[in-house]
Amino acid sequence: MLDSQDPNSSVASTEADITDTIAAAAQPDQWASQKKFEREKHINYFKRSLQMLPGVYTSMDTHRMTLGMFALGGLELLGVLEETVSEANRQAWIEWIYSQQRIPDPLVGEDELSDKNAGLYGFGGPFSGLPFQDQSVAEGYQGCECGARSTVYDTAHITMTYTALLMLVLLGDDLSRVAKEPILRSLRKLQQPNGCFVPCITDPESDMRFLYCAAAISHILNDWSGFNRQTALQFIRGSQTYEHGISQSMYQEAHGGPTYCAVATLGLLGGEALGDQKTMIRNEGEAEDAFEERKSQAGFVDKEGTRRWCLLRQLTGFQGRTNKVVDTCYSFWVGGTLATLGSMDLVNYECNRSFLMDTQHESFGGFGKWIDAYPDVLHSYMGIAGLSLMGEPGIRPMDPLLNISKRMQERLYTQSVFWRSS
Ligand SMILES: [Zn+2]
């Protein structure tokens, strides 16, 4: 996948290289004047986050799956996942993740799995961390007026499905208990006529984040039958703005997050999806409709414009939008986009690294959004991911498309039931 555009090809491409990268966690000589990368403190930060989070996370109760992925993924990027997670915890967490999977009620016959129920399945956000229970089988429950099972109020969420799958890979599961067909049926239900996705059937919100999650899920399951490629490409092209960055949806402002989501989706789609309509030339003798068909396979209206917009987001670190302040997470969102476009060599590593070293919390570990901000798990993960893209010693190389280490990407391809026999 995208070997020719591998952003880490000059950093570490073999298992031996990766081991060397982790072992050599010393400060790079050329940046001796910068603050030290507090690797040990970050390891402790993620270990603490797996056990308990501060009270400010209470409102994120239903995001436990995503928070867990950032903590486990952070430990993996720091090269200590296996030695940090005990076998008992590993097994318990795998069981907990599967307990959050919404699957067709075994008491309901396949005939009843009509279109109205599609969209329910996948992994959900748990309430207070409890295992999901299908209330439709509870004593005396009659189902709701709309005809759907009670799970309509507690459905899977596309982001939780994406992060649950990544967490299962991180924990060494082979994905054999993932209900692939119901998830694919859900994806087909969640994709909108304009090509974008809603996160669950009870939420009308629809934007590039969920389109990316659907693409990543399809890639992990190695099956794109739940994803309409053609309308998705139209949506991505339609969201490229006059600035040439990409917005959450059509007619909105260009933004680093959706630009990453869109470009990573194009990378996962592969083939002509990373092509550029602006530079396409009609071949001699090519019929006009054939040329139009070829153009419709390209995901960019102006690829160079998008690359330029991303590069212009670097001040010291990266900003997410024009005229905004720099923020830790965009070192990955914009950096991952540039890595996918094969342009990390155009980033000023020294300035970006210096900014990230300043957003580390010197006592607690972890990264804040800004200098002097308290750390949070998202920015901690993204800060380390951004450093990984620049080959920081002590951090594993990562795959910018799935937002996971290359080692875990390889584990997905060699150990998961969806890939290992393909
Ligand atoms: Zn941020």
From TrEMBL:
InterPro entries: PGGT1B-like, Prenyltrans, Terpenoid_cyclase/PrenylTrfase. Keywords: Metal-binding, Prenyltransferase, Repeat, Transferase, Zinc. Residues 37-404 form the Prenyltransferase alpha-alpha toroid domain. Its cofactor is Zn(2+). One of its GO terms (cellular component) is CAAX-protein geranylgeranyltransferase complex. GO terms for molecular function: CAAX-protein geranylgeranyltransferase activity; metal ion binding. The keyword Zinc applies. Pfam families: Prenyltrans. Belongs to the protein prenyltransferase subunit beta family. This is Geranylgeranyl transferase type-1 subunit beta.
